[in-house]
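Workshop exercise sheet. Pairs work together: one partner reads the sequence aloud, the other fills in the structure field after running the prediction. Swap roles for the next sheet.
Pair: D.N. / O.F.
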Amino acid sequence: MKPIIAPSVLASDFANLQSEVEMLNESQADWLHIDIMDGRFVPNISFGFPVLQAIQRHAKKPLDVHLMIVEPELYIEQFREAGAEIISVHLEACNHLHRTIQQIKATGAKAGIALNPHTSVQLLDDVIADVDLVCLMSVNPGFGGQKFIENTYRKIEALKNLIIARNSKALIEIDGGVNQQNAPLLLEKGADALVAGSFVFNSADPLQTIANLKNQA
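Structure field:
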């Protein structure tokens, strides 16, 4: 199986957002990864509903929306209405995680959980069978272009074992510092989806870079 490739629009040229999205439409990317940051859960602010709706108007591929925000449960329905097909919330931001997962699924979107680098995958034990995706942060969330955290390989293995033990169908997504060098080992350890931002959009040929990542398996 070839990996799911989800370029992170956060690293795109916002002044030419339509053309960037159209480029991704023509690429071998599977999803468009959308990072929503509120300046509270993470020390940065990205964009909100108007930009997401603008992306959705031009996108021909599913929008994988990663909510790096506090109280995500207040906005789930709005993100779904704005075009999100996958909605991932941070375990660290949810007081009632199971309820929030059910809220996402009730909208018809796929439900994901994101984990910060310091958060153990064992905390997912009671909900792993209920989710469609687990996004492991391989950098500290909030900014693009950070260095990959090597401990991520161990976490993928632990998460894969948990998914198998609980008979879950959750996909494993890796977000942060993904590149041509670490992609093969990430997939070998059990990753299903790779998020790549700066590595794609700062490359000389984003279409070829995406194709190279897609053909790692």
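Discussion prompt: The chain has a mean pLDDT of 96. What would you look at next?
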